[in-house]
Amino acid sequence: MGFPEWKGEAIAGLSLHRPVILIARLDFLPFVVLYLGWAVICLTNEISELFEVLGAVVLVVLHLLVFLMQYWSLSVRVLVGHRTLTSIGEKDEAEISEGKIKVRATPPPHRGKADFTTLQIDDRKIHFSFQMLTYEYNRETGYFEELLPPDNLPLKHYVEYARKAGGLDEESVFRVMRRFGTNRIEIPLPKFWDLYQEQLLSPFFVFQVFCILLWVLDAYWQYFAMTLVMMLIFEATVVKGRLRSLAELRGMRNKPSKINAYRSKKWVSISSLELLPGDIISLTRGSTPDVVVPCDCLILSGGAVVNESMLTGESVPLMKEGIAPLPDRDADRDLRVNSEDKAHILFGGT
What we know:
magnesium, 3 domains, five-stranded mixed sheet, nucleotide-binding
């Protein structure tokens, strides 16, 4: 496996790219040569005006298709205007901080589509986001590794952490916040014109426009204009519908609530949006039966009755209990969230 290498099941292919200068782009210099060449041919040879115009139209259409193919195909976009990186050096880090280095991430089959995102650097940590997951570059191993919370440590680690630690202090909160972000599910609401542009540049719409352009050749420009206006209005209604659906989806998110967290050796009330990996929190019975767990968490002590029907489809409430007291035979065993230790885990949203 060549550079870059990665760890994570959500990625099947990964490559880094730097944009090339304008004259090196495949949609610039080759077409400059073609346009100049056709102009020379038309000036030095006796060619009818019809063929001169026809040749120019063919070149313009071909040039336009190259631009559209970059929008339709990520592979074409990378081929036309980018150069592949084979390593990351100090010079590259300067360009990363300027947002010039791009990452092409390809998922396994039937698990979404490839993305072309920007490589970022914070506190000398190089990272990028793909499918709502963050991947950090490990300088020692040379791998891009998925950023995971500490959910696979030995069980005794969590018990000792709760017993001895005073929770996250201010410095730890700042550091963990910068690395993991807030406890929020981001559902971005795109702008109308961005979605409208996406609709107008889709292959089917471009094909429709090309078809109705043929009417202009028969002097039916009125039909062309009327049909084009109707198509534009229809695509605008489609965009409005998509925005309405996204707004409804955003409205289904759980509302933030106040929760008690143990930080700097004292209990403080914070918003559930501010919860971080490593926080020790206190969950109590709410005034209403539809209290929602704000995040995935391990029960250290006590118990809870939860409804996991949204995850399992079963309407029977489940009993959850803490890991303490911890049997000696399990002290050195790693936490297994999705198997043996599910009875000690509260899942967010349940």
